[in-house]
Amino acid sequence: MAGFVVLLFLMTVFGTSFHPLRWIGRLAVRLLIGVFFLFLLNVVGQSFSLHIPINIATASVSGLLGIPGVAALVLIRYTTGV
After folding, report:
1. Which residue has the higher pLDDT, 82 or 69?
2. Which residues, including other chains, have CB under 8 Å from residue 37's CB and lie 6 or more apart?
3. Does the structure show a pLDDT above 70 at 17?
4. Exposed/middle/buried for 63, CB within 10 Å: 0-12, 13-18, 19+?
5. How far is CA 74 from its chain centroid?
6. Integer Cα distance of 2 and 73 in angstroms
7. How confident is the model at residue 82 (pLDDT cuts 50, 70, 90)?
8. Do the Cβ atoms of 70 and 38 come closer than 8 Å?
9. Which residues are within 8 A (CB) of 54 and not within 5 positions of it... i.e. 6 or more apart?
10. Under DSSP, is residue 74 helix (H, G, I), strand (E, B) or coil?
11. Which residues contact 30 (CB under 8 A, 6 or more apart)?
12. CA 21: distance to chain centroid?
């Protein structure tokens, strides 16, 4: 925690852009949206015996690619049977 505060202080003193922090924030929001998509898919998919595990890989695919990413995960699940 102290290292983060020192880094934040140095960035404000030396005028470094907060652009990388903005990218990290956007990535985190997209990952959360991906987790939400997968959760909804698992809730609806219970009646069809469809379950996609929620982990960092599947959340990244569904968060970064959106609905096509979720569709790709479902397609991979049905074609490989994993």
Report:
1. 69
2. 62, 63, 66, 67, 70
3. no
4. buried
5. 17
6. 40
7. low
8. yes
9. 35, 38, 39, 42
10. helix
11. 63, 64
12. 16
Q: How far is CA 82 from CA 10, 47, 77, 78, in A?
A: 48, 18, 6, 8
Please report where in the chains the tokens 């996609």 appear, as a residue: 52
DSSP state of 18: S
For the residues 7-28, what does the mean pLDDT come to?
72
pLDDT per position as a tens digit, 34-50: 999 999 999 999 998 88
Q: Integer distance in angstroms from the first to the last C-alpha of the chain?
A: 40
Kindly report, residue by residue over 1-16, the tens digit of the pLDDT: 777 777 667 777 766 5
**Residue entry with tokens 């020192």:** 6
* Tokens encoding 24: 């990290």
